[in-house]
Write a structure and sequence with these properties.
Layout (H helix, E strand, L loop, with lengths): L2 H6 L10 H26 L1 H7 L4 H29 L2 H18 L5 H29 L5 H26 L19 H6 L7 H8 L4 H12 L7 H4 L5 H23 L2 H7 L5 H29 L1 H20 L4 H14 L7 H7 L6 H29 L5 H20 L19
Helix pairs in contact: 2-5, 2-6, 2-7, 2-9, 3-4, 4-5, 4-6, 4-18, 5-6, 5-9, 6-18, 7-14, 7-17, 12-18, 12-19, 14-15, 14-16, 15-16, 15-19, 17-18, 18-19
């Protein structure tokens, strides 16, 4: 070990990063957490939306699916921008994009109008992750990157918990804005839930003035220009040579992981409302606390990643999650449902802790953001099929929600385990500015 590396280990890990590194991480953290709020609030209001517009629940889940599918467009475009122009600009654009789309969707006069703007939200949502993940992981020291990856990715749970808290505390209560704004209803409904989504746009101002580009990216970009080796088509490069296997196994891993997530979360609230007749406050209880536990559990598995490796930090919680799934889906007892679902937050919600670090470490700097964005968000294509498929079997085929959710969760977890086991171990990898892609 070098003298510098040894000296760094004498300093507490949280003191090792500089102020600029902390600012870069915080920017990605805020973008991701607020992205989660704007997206997941929709999962809690699908039933009242279907009732107001008099459309089948399956049609509302299609909105959710198209939103997920368009994430790939946003992720690929933002990844290219981030690799070519820097991490900050696409991050700011993405936050403004999804905030404004969510706000406008709250004014929807028709279901088609809602469909259109929630679908557009998916582009901004997809754009946030590759820029934010690259910004955070490139800026952060290798020593604690696994832990901070877990905290970053797990903060999706905080955003979801925030949306659940807003739903549980505000939905159905008297609307103080009703007398001021005629378009606001007498009680807080699904429209007001979407209007709250404009608030993340304020973060852009802070990012503009206080966040700097990662030194690794800036130096890499300088070397590309200096040596005439600019990578102009990074998406093509990740399907060549030694990167191909990383791309394939990464795509399978993320596709299965998205299917796990939406098998657990997408229709859980609808299941409790429609089949078990739970009130908004009752629905919010397991959703809120399970997401708080997702955040805590992701940090825990991030610590494991820095000790045992990225792969074990994904495989171990995936194995345990298989056995946790029946705890909340084989019963109608509220106590067991709440307990089992919260426990699932630690394990089924913990398999995502290394998404930012593991994807960033698998690809070189020239193509990192594009590769991470594409591999991650192609999984959303598969994840987007989950809600319509589960609702079809649950409602149209009369199976109820529990069995389809269980099959989707367990089957996808098995694929996650296999795909991650076939990938490389990247624990402790130092991200450098070295040129690793031959030539575009």
């Amino acid at each position: 070990m070098s003298v510098a590396a040894e000296a760094s280990r004498q300093v507490p890990w949280w003191k090792e990063p500089t102020k600029d590194q902390w600012n870069a991480y915080l920017a990605a953290w805020l973008g991701w957490t607020l992205d989660a709020f704007d997206f997941t609030i929709f999962l809690l209001i699908m039933l009242p939306i279907s009732q107001e517009f008099n459309v089948p629940l399956t049609a509302v889940t299609a909105v959710f699916a198209i939103t997920l599918w368009l994430r790939l467009i946003g992720a690929t475009a933002a990844g290219w921008m981030a690799d070519r122009m820097g991490r900050k600009a696409p991050l700011m654009i993405s936050i403004l994009w999804y905030s404004i789309c969510n706000f406008i969707a709250g004014f929807s006069p028709t279901f088609a109008f809602l469909f259109f703007f929630r679908a557009l939200l998916g582009i901004g949502m997809g754009a946030e992750w590759p820029a934010g993940a690259a910004l955070a992981m490139e800026s952060w020291p290798a020593r604690s990157r696994g832990l901070m990856s877990g905290i970053l990715q797990g903060s999706w749970g905080l955003g979801f918990a925030l949306s659940a808290a807003c739903y549980g505390l505000l939905y159905g209560h008297a609307n103080p804005l009703h007398e001021i704004f005629p378009f606001a209803g007498p009680t807080i409904g699904w429209r007001e839930m979407l209007w709250i989504g404009i608030l993340p746009a304020l973060v852009v101002v802070w990012i503009r003035f206080y966040v700097k580009e990662p030194e690794v990216w800036a130096e890499n970009k300088r070397l590309q220009a200096e040596q005439g080796r600019e990578v102009k088509a990074p998406l093509v490069e990740i399907f060549k040579g030694p990167m191909l296997w990383n791309t394939i196994t990464g795509c399978v891993w993320m596709a299965a992981a998205f299917c796990v997530y939406y098998s657990i979360w997408a229709l859980f609230s609808t299941y409790l409302q429609k089949e078990l007749n739970w009130t908004p406050a009752m629905v919010a209880t397991p959703v809120f606390w399970a997401n708080i536990v997702v955040f805590v559990g992701s940090g825990m598995w991030g610590y494991v990643a820095d000790k045992l490796g990225r792969r074990w930090a994904i495989i171990l919680p995936a194995i345990i999650a298989i056995f946790v799934t029946p705890l909340y889906l084989w019963t109608t007892n509220p106590v067991w449902i709440i307990f089992g679902f919260i426990v699932q937050g630690v394990f089924g919600g913990g398999i995502y802790s290394q998404n930012p670090s593991y994807l960033s470490e698998r690809f070189p700097t020239e193509v990192r953001s594009t590769a991470s964005g594409f591999v991650y968000h192609q999984g959303a294509i598969w994840g987007g099929l989950v809600a319509p498929a589960l609702s079809y079997f649950a409602v149209d085929k009369g199976m109820g929600f529990a069995w389809p959710m269980m099959i989707g969760t367990v089957g996808s977890l098995i694929i996650v385990i296999i795909a991650v086991a076939l990938g490389p171990e990247t624990k402790g990898k130092v991200l450098t500015a070295n040129l690793e892609v031959s030539r575009a």
